[in-house]
Design brief:
The complex is a heterodimer of chains A (376) and B (126).
Chain A: H1 8-13, E1 17-21, E2 24-29, H2 33-42, E3 44-48, E4 53-58, H3 62-67, E5 82-88, E6 94-104, E7 107-112, H4 117-127, E8 134-137, E9 142-148, H5 152-158, E10 172-177, E11 180-185, E12 194-200, H6 204-214, E13 220-223, H7 225-234, H8 270-278, E14 285-292, E15 303-306, E16 309-320, E17 325-333, E18 348-353, E19 356-363
Parallel strand pairs in A: 3-13
Antiparallel strand pairs in A: 1-2, 3-9, 4-7, 4-8, 5-6, 6-7, 9-12, 10-11, 11-12, 14-17, 14-19, 15-16, 15-18, 16-17, 18-19
Helix pairs in contact in A: 2-7
Chain B: E1 9-10, E2 15-19, E3 24-28, H1 30-36, E4 39-43, E5 50-51, E6 56-62, E7 66-70, E8 75-80, H2 83-86, H3 90-93, E9 101-105, H4 108-111, E10 116-117, H5 118-125
Antiparallel strand pairs in B: 1-2, 1-10, 2-3, 3-9, 4-6, 5-8, 6-7, 8-9
The chains are: A alpha+beta (376), B alpha+beta (126).
């Protein structure tokens, strides 16, 4: 038996299908993945993402320390602002991807992947020895809900936080929602407008029930991890362990937009990452998005072929309910004379599915346009 | 077909098979379909292909994963349910009406050993 969120009983009562995920027993679906996916795109969905990790970094050296462990420029964050970034190793590989929220000076919150909490905390602690900082893994104290979809802002307003005082995209602020004090951020993993609500465990059942009850007329439904995966894949948000890992740099993963180009401070893997951006260090692979032409569904670890030669591997694949086609992300391995070195969009590839090749084409990412206010 | 077809036998790997005299009809159980969730793709064998008992003869894909489907008894495929190729969701909508293949079973006497009646099968998965 895995770890259980404080909402486990609620979810069981709602007939959620519960599966093991990253050491937790989490709901993979309620009404059905496609229905849940469409609900988030058209109305409103509520996710329990309590398995994710919350780590506080505080102290007089907090900023300098964070600057030394991520490629983003954390010094650019003003109070209550957040940034997407990666925790990189000495070779520039991605230990985890995360969001850093600046609560105030010397006070930062890191939201990290469930499967990586222990690895991250060990790495962060190991790197912090020469800094005056306190690292606190508070994951067990907090539950995290994600409220995502075009009607998210309306529900938050209905529950006591008017639109004009709601946090802006990639911001966080304390808020009282339905009488419960929590941290409200304008972030998510679906490409829709929405919020994440970080709340003390003892209030989460009440919060969950209130959101579902009060959101009824806005079309709210509980959403499982299955739809979370198809939603994030359509907008090409990477999943650690699939599309990014310790052997893939942010540049190789197509995340160069999240690397500060003019940052002075050194950080783990900076020489490799900046070398790859400058073109002095070759990329070993490239993350591409593709859409199936033939009728077949690509899956994690299926092989990718070009003109009969194996050139890569599918990192994520699934039907895209908002597109009506089958899509995927793949690592394409690069060498000196690879056709994939330059522009890849429009190149036809083949995906090996059950020992047969099926046609696909490399297309622009994201597959579905994001509807939140993305700045990159 | 809202009701469980009378006389079906079920395998541990969640297929059902029905002796219809000339041929045997094979499908997926209600439990299997419920566990899979939204079915979005069905791959069926060619008519004329022959398979042993327990051999993979089809693939059914849900949003999340691909699942192999095994022969509850060996034989030659005489007909496939083409409708499922274009409308895989029929399996979710009408599990008992959505058979996969019809088979000429070559060794039914021996192959049927170990198959369960529906009531016993239901108990085994509950």
């Amino acid at each position: 038996m895995g770890k259980r969120s404080f909402l486990y009983e609620e979810q069981e009562n709602m007939k959620a299908k519960i599966v093991p995920f990253a050491g937790w027993d989490m709901p993979v679906q309620y009404s059905g993945i496609i229905d849940e996916h469409n609900t988030v795109r058209s109305a409103l969905g509520l996710f329990d993402v309590s398995h994710m990790g919350e780590v506080f970094v505080t102290g007089s050296d907090a900023l300098d320390f964070l600057q030394s462990i991520v490629p983003q420029d954390v010094s650019k964050l003003t109070d209550s602002r957040a940034v997407y970034c990666q925790l990189t190793n000495k070779k520039g590989g991605i230990i985890d991807d995360l969001i850093i929220y600046k609560l105030k000076d010397e006070n930062y919150l890191l939201i990290v992947n469930a499967s990586r909490i222990d690895v991250d905390v060990n790495w962060i602690t190991l790197n912090s020895l020469n800094y005056d900082v306190k690292i606190e893994n508070a994951s067990h104290n907090y539950s995290l809900l994600a409220l995502q979809g075009p009607n998210a802002s309306a529900l938050i307003e209905k529950l006591g936080c008017a639109r004009d005082i709601q946090p802006e995209y990639f911001s966080i602020q304390p808020a009282t929602i339905a009488g419960i004090d929590l941290m409200l951020s304008r972030t998510g993993y679906t490409g829709e407008d929405g919020f994440e609500l970080m709340v003390e465990n003892k209030y989460v059942v009440q919060l969950w029930k209130t959101l579902l009850r009060e959101g009824k007329e806005l079309g709210i439904k509980p959403i499982g991890l299955g739809a979370r995966d198809t939603l994030r894949l359509e907008v090409a948000l990477p999943l650690w362990g699939n599309d990014i890992d310790e052997d893939t740099t942010p540049v190789e993963a197509g995340l160069t937009w999240s690397v500060a180009k003019d940052k002075k401070e050194n950080y783990n893997g900076k020489d490799v990452i900046m070398g790859q951006i400058a073109g002095t260090i070759p990329l070993r692979k490239k993350l591409v998005g593709f859409e199936m032409i033939d009728k077949a569904i690509p899956r994690h670890e299926y092989e990718v072929y070009y003109e009969g030669n194996k050139v890569g591997v599918v990192t994520s694949g699934a039907p895209a309910p908002s597109k009506g086609s089958n899509i995927g992300l793949a690592h394409i391995y690069l060498d000196d004379n690879s056709i994939f070195l330059n522009k890849t969009i429009g190149i036809n590839i083949d995906i090996m599915v059950r020992n047969k090749l099926y046609k696909a084409q490399i297309v622009k990412k994201p597959f579905v346009q994001k509807k939140n206010s993305v700045k990159n | 077909m809202a009701y469980v077809p009378e006389g079906i036998l079920c395998s541990k790997s969640h297929e059902w098979i029905l002796d219809e005299g000339e041929v045997f009809t094979i499908g997926l159980t209600d439990y299997a379909v419920e566990q899979l969730g939204d079915i979005v793709f069905v791959e069926l064998p060619e008519v004329g292909a022959e398979f042993q008992k327990d051999e993979t003869f089809a693939t059914v894909e849900s949003v999340k994963a691909a699942s192999e489907i095994y022969m509850p008894a060996g034989g030659k495929i005489v007909e496939v349910n083409e409708e499922l190729i274009n409308s895989p969701e029929k399996l979710n909508e009408d599990v008992w009406g959505s058979w996969l293949v019809k088979v000429d079973c070559s060794n039914w006497g021996e192959d049927s050993i170990g198959l369960m009646e529906y009531e016993d099968y239901k108990e085994s998965v509950s």
